[in-house]
Amino acid sequence: MSEQQNPAGQWIQVAAGLKNPSMRRLLGAVLSGCGVPEPANKSERKDLERWASIGLLRQEGSGWALNDELLEKTLASASAAKADRNGIRRFFDGHRLHALPAKPADRHEVLVYLRNAVIGAEDELREEQLNERLRVFHPDVALLRRYMVDHGLLQRAADGSGYRMGTGS
């Protein structure tokens, strides 16, 4: 997991992985205790590496195991977030953004939080991938995307094919 990514962003990536049938099958094999044989093809290796980069699985000896540390950190983070309804948390109901702040400084802080939740420093996402991750937080993904680009938090490729983390913070 990237150092800048928060637990919410990590779980958005888990949800995206669960949408992928081959990733779901590999995770199921690990969770059921059946184990994952040596990946037969490049796609399976890539899927396991993605689970590992998300932090949900880790390689253990010659096999794969669930990363219990991730679950513990997530539960601790959720408990702390529930207790803290100050700062940007006041604009959220759980993980859902219920309103974009009117004050520019608050809006920027919310957008930074969302950006860090949906994209890692090294990621390049297609628009549909970015939309899928943003939709977890708010239904108006075009508005969020536009604000993030306007604030310099995301950089859009010149040909419109993808988005990367911007230089704004």
Describe the structure.
- By secondary structure, the protein is mostly helical.
- The chain has helices at residues 7-19, 21-31, 42-54, 68-83, 104-118, 127-135, 141-150, and strands spanning 57-60, 63-66, 92-93, 96-97, 124-125, 154-156, 163-165.
- The strands form three sheets. It has a three-stranded antiparallel β-sheet. A two-stranded antiparallel ribbon has the order 1-2. Strands 3-4 form a two-stranded antiparallel ribbon.
- A hairpin with a 2-residue loop joins strand 3 and strand 4 (96-97).
- Helix 1 packs across helix 5, helix 2 (21-31) crosses helix 3 (42-54) and helix 6 crosses helix 7 (141-150).
Write the layout of secondary structure elements.
Layout (H helix, E strand, L loop, with lengths): L6 H13 L1 H11 L10 H13 L2 E4 L2 E4 L1 H16 L8 E2 L2 E2 L6 H15 L5 E2 L1 H9 L5 H10 L3 E3 L6 E3 L4
Antiparallel strand pairs: 1-2, 3-4, 5-7, 6-7
Helix pairs in contact: 1-5, 2-3, 6-7
